[in-house]
Amino acid sequence: MQDRLTKELRLGGISSLAQANAYLPEFIAAYNARFAVAPRAAESAHRSLSKGEDLDRILTLCERRTLSKNLTLSYNNVIYQIKTERAAYTMRQAHVEVRERHTGEITIEYKQQPLAYTIYQEQEQQQGKVIEAKLLQPAAARAAARPKQKQGPVPSTPWRRFYFSKNSLQAKERRGELCILPK
After folding, report:
1. In angstroms, rounded to a whole number, what is the distance separating the alpha carbons of residues 77 and 97?
2. Domain coordinates of the chain in residue numbers?
3. Residue environment code for 55-87, b if the CB has 16+ CB neighbours within 10 A, otherwise e
4. What distance in Å separates the CA atoms of residue 28 and residue 30, rounded to the nearest whole number?
5. Is 0.70 topped by the overall pTM?
């Protein structure tokens, strides 16, 4: 219907809720007469849920996470820690699903089985500081004015003490075993 109803209300001079509710059945009948399409088949294409399907589980937001070494994961700026009876090393790096229902309830599942958890820590979102331009420009100018120090290798690096092995080309040339013609 997009914005057709609001346009029809405006064209009809309808400005109150009671007038709009009275006009609505007339609008729906005209809208359906204009845009309705008859289906190819009369039978319903919908199917009922099978016994193994859980509609509440299907209609959740689902995100995958990987557990850390101490069995924690982060979701929506909150760190959750898994409580388990088994040894902690068995669950490390496990892939879990974090499911959030429309009510905000969160469940954490491993191999489609819910896990017990606690909220370990809520993370604070820190926004970067806003620095005024008049303070930012002098700091940038000072940084640009500083001479860049040339970083070279440390004097004790192994390549400074390099010596030619018996089989290197330079060693063979010094011994006279190799003749290199000048250009």
Report:
1. 16
2. 4-35, 56-122
3. eeeeebeeeebebeeebbbeeeeeebbbeeeee
4. 5
5. no
